[in-house]
Design a protein that fits this description.
The chain is an alpha/beta fold. The chain folds into two domains: about 140 residues, Rossmann fold (3-Layer(aba) Sandwich); about 55 residues, Orthogonal Bundle (Arc Repressor Mutant, subunit A). Helix content is about 50%, strand content about 15%. The chain has ten helices and six strands; from the N terminus they run βαβαβαβαβαβααααα. It has a six-stranded parallel β-sheet with strand order 2-1-3-4-5-6, with helices on both faces. The chain is globular and about 50 Å long.
Length: about 210
């Protein structure tokens, strides 16, 4: 069964280009297209996609505001943000708004389909080039005074997994990289989330950066 995708992009050429690109895949079906943030919630109800692919900057309501509106409405459709190199601050806001994936607009078909598959399966993906900008963007931030301390120290192995998580790698890719079973990696990721007191991988990376672990 194909993964149903909805596109939210105000630039006609970009939106049509993405649609044409995705139509080359046997795994993806573009079920709907919207042109601004206000249309996102209506589109999600109308088209019932499995994954939302959205621009950050759109008229009337930004992609980030649309994600926040989805959170408020209790809509749990995984979203991938499309961004450019100079948008790392907005990507951080997107993380906090619940986005599951982040890709540059010049992404290849294989990378785009891979990202859609991963977020559809509940994983988080941040393109390495964007991760570097995020880390640079957060390097000057200090831990807020009301930020709770780490409940329990991460082990060296967990730190290794955390660094790979920050690179946007999936459990399977981490498993291959450090020669551990995928089940072991899944358990380590769960332990990391528990120790950092967060719900998902994206929040874990942000929390680790704020704590100075990355």
């Amino acid at each position: 069964m194909k993964i149903k995708v909805m596109l939210a992009e105000d630039q006609n050429l970009v939106r049509q280009g993405l649609c044409n690109l995705l139509e080359l895949s046997d795994l993806i079906e573009v079920v709907g297209q919207v042109t601004d943030g206000f249309e996102v919630l209506e589109g999600l109800e109308r088209y019932k996609p499995d994954v939302l692919l959205t621009d950050i900057r759109m008229p009337k309501m930004t992609g980030i505001d649309a994600l926040k509106a989805m959170q408020s409405a209790g809509i749990d459709v995984p979203a991938i943000i499309l961004t450019t190199f100079d948008n790392h601050q907005l990507v951080l806001e997107g993380m906090q708004a619940g986005a599951r994936g982040y890709l540059l607009k010049d992404v290849s078909l294989d990378s785009l389909v891979n990202a859609i598959e991963k977020v559809h399966q509940g994983e988080t993906l941040v393109q390495p080039a964007i991760t570097e900008r995020i880390l640079n963007g957060l390097s000057s931030l200090s831990l807020s005074q009301d930020e709770p301390e780490l409940a329990e120290a991460l082990s060296p192995k967990e730190m290794e997994v955390l660094r790979l998580m920050a690179g946007g790698y999936s459990n399977r890719e981490i498993s291959s990289a450090i020669h551990k079973s995928e089940g072991t990696i899944k358990n380590q990721v769960s332990s990391i989330l528990d120790k950092l007191g967060v719900r998902d991988r994206t929040q874990a990376v942000l929390r680790a950066i704020n704590l100075g672990l990355l």
